[in-house]
Design brief:
The complex is a heterodimer. Chain A is mainly α. Chain A is built from eight helices and no strands. In chain A, α1 packs antiparallel against α2, α2 crosses α4 and α4 packs across α6. Helices cover about 40% and strands about 25% of the residues of chain B. In chain B, strands 1, 4, 5, 6, 7 and 13 form a six-stranded mixed beta sheet that branches. In chain B, about 45% of the residues are buried. The chains are: A mainly alpha, B alpha/beta.
């Protein structure tokens, strides 16, 4: 089969894989952004047992490879508790992947948030107290926006890393774009032993992270009108 | 206030524990009852021509796939094919993500230790793959001592590389081993003869590769969970299918009739 004949078949298959990649990316982001904030509150809590538990969690998650976490989350319930909560199909693998990614990224985000919150000068909170605002009012009306501005550059970094980390989910056979590309090495839909589809997936990652870089850069510019 | 928080944390942990452990498996049920109750046989595969691969419409076909469909029909359940990561096949079985591994699986010591396997149904061999223009120099394993081989991690091919004292690098799967040779990053590879027959040579993506020496002979079987009563059921089913000529017919469709064990 010539390249011209192969291309549409490969293109379709890679698109299907890329949609999985994109879904994993977006759902992880939607889940991990707020969860990260919750975790950062936990680790900054003045209630010691809570902050100790949360800090241990962050240590474990940041201290072990995401690939291992994927394996543990997908296989452990069935192997150890004899209760496979994920099922066997593609959907269960996807939900397990999303779970692992959200927990992992929320822990990284939480540390970035913590830095962002603690970088807001203490005087700002005191000013809020003087004005008679409650704790939550101080956070949402004074601290939050300044934190968002502080954390945007490191968050952009993490978000772009996330795009590429999604490829780790293939360890539990989630059929994302790298998997789709590799299928043509083994033989799929009449195409076997072709390496170019795998390399071609790089283009998808490049374009997507390029778009993200532009969007995040614009956002950063928009927030630069006020200085902390 | 503090007590409430502690209580909340404890409750959360308990709830998670109950979630995992509470609705555990029924120990009395045999594997066959479990599969029949579920109404479907989940078959773990990888993309492996000519045993399990997708046709143009995305349906799983191949010698193993067609036999698996027949076996599911015999059990009176649906069949579901799930692509797995080959490294994790025993975990997939034990965790009940799949019910059997049926994908041209060589009965190696690792496989026999981790699963209960059916009677072998197909012969296979590990063959040496080299670039076609160098095939004359490398007729036997002894000729290949100075070459670096690519082998699939944990595969029968790797065992042969060790047994023949060849230099080797472990890679992800057999297809990757082939592309290592094609790319020149390894000098040669050791893969299944059935796969080599289907994937290399003229008219394939690896037209400039060929295979020379066979290093051993080995057998394919189907893997089930340890202690599963499906093994005996499968052996009965397969004998009957051999007797009525069905196996031969399916094998001829995919060109593997030479390798069948009758």
């Amino acid at each position: 089969m010539s390249f011209i004949e192969q291309f549409p078949i490969v293109f379709d298959a890679l698109n299907v894989g890329f949609i999985q990649t994109l879904k994993l990316f977006l759902i992880t982001l939607v889940g991990a952004l707020p969860l990260g904030l919750v975790i950062s509150f936990g680790s900054m809590s003045k209630f010691k047992p809570l902050s100790a538990v949360v800090k241990t969690l962050v240590w474990v998650i940041r201290g072990t490879p995401l690939m291992l976490q994927l394996l543990v989350i997908y296989y452990l319930p069935g192997l150890v508790f004899h209760n496979n909560i994920w099922g066997s199909g593609e959907e269960g693998r996807f939900i397990a992947s999303v779970t692992a990614f959200i927990i992992n990224y929320a822990c990284y985000f939480s540390e970035i948030y913590r830095g962002g919150i603690q970088a807001v000068p203490r005087g700002q909170q005191e000013a809020g107290q003087v004005l008679g605002l409650t704790k939550s009012q101080i956070f949402f009306k004074i601290t939050l926006l300044q934190m968002v501005k502080n954390v945007l550059p490191p968050m952009s970094n993490e978000i772009i890393t996330l795009v590429k980390d999604t490829s780790l989910a293939r360890i539990i056979a989630l059929q994302e774009i790298i998997w789709a590309g590799q299928a043509f090495m083994k033989g799929s839909q009449g195409i076997a032993g072709e390496i170019w589809p795998l390399f071609f997936t790089g283009l998808y990652y490049l374009v997507f992270s390029g778009v993200l870089t532009i969007v995040l850069g614009k956002l950063e510019k928009k927030l630069s009108y006020f200085r902390t | 206030m503090k007590m409430k928080k502690i209580l909340a944390v404890i409750m959360a942990v308990l709830m998670i524990a109950v979630c995992f452990a509470g609705c555990g498996e029924d120990k009395e049920k045999t594997d066959m009852e479990y599969v029949k109750e579920k109404g479907k046989l989940v078959v773990g595969i990888t993309d492996f021509e000519p045993m399990d691969y997708e046709d143009k419409d995305g349906n799983w076909i191949g010698f193993d796939a067609d036999m698996a469909k027949a076996f599911a029909k015999y059990l009176g359940v649906e069949v579901e094919f799930v692509e797995i990561n080959w490294d994790n096949k025993i975990m997939e079985l034990d965790g009940k993500n799949i019910d059997c591994v049926w994908n041209g699986m060589t009965l190696t010591d690792e496989v026999k230790a981790g699963m209960d396997c059916s009677k072998p149904y197909c012969n296979n061999a590990q063959v040496i793959v080299v670039p076609a223009d160098k095939a004359d120099q490398y007729k036997t394993a002894a000729d290949c001592k100075e070459l670096t081989f690519a082998v699939e991690a944990g595969s029968a091919g790797k065992d042969q590389a060790v047994a023949n004292e060849l230099k080797y690098t472990e890679v992800l799967d057999q297809a990757t081993a082939l592309s290592e040779v094609a790319a020149g990053t390894c000098d040669a590879a050791i893969i299944d003869s059935l796969m080599a027959g289907a994937m290399i040579g003229e008219g394939t993506g690896y037209a400039n590769l060929t295979y020379t020496a066979s290093l051993n002979s080995e057998e394919y079987g189907v893997g089930f969970r340890k202690g599963s009563d499906l093994v005996a059921e499968f052996n009965m089913f397969f004998d009957a299918e051999v007797a009525n000529g069905n196996v031969q017919k399916v094998a001829e469709t995919y060109g593997v009739q030479e390798a069948l064990i009758k």
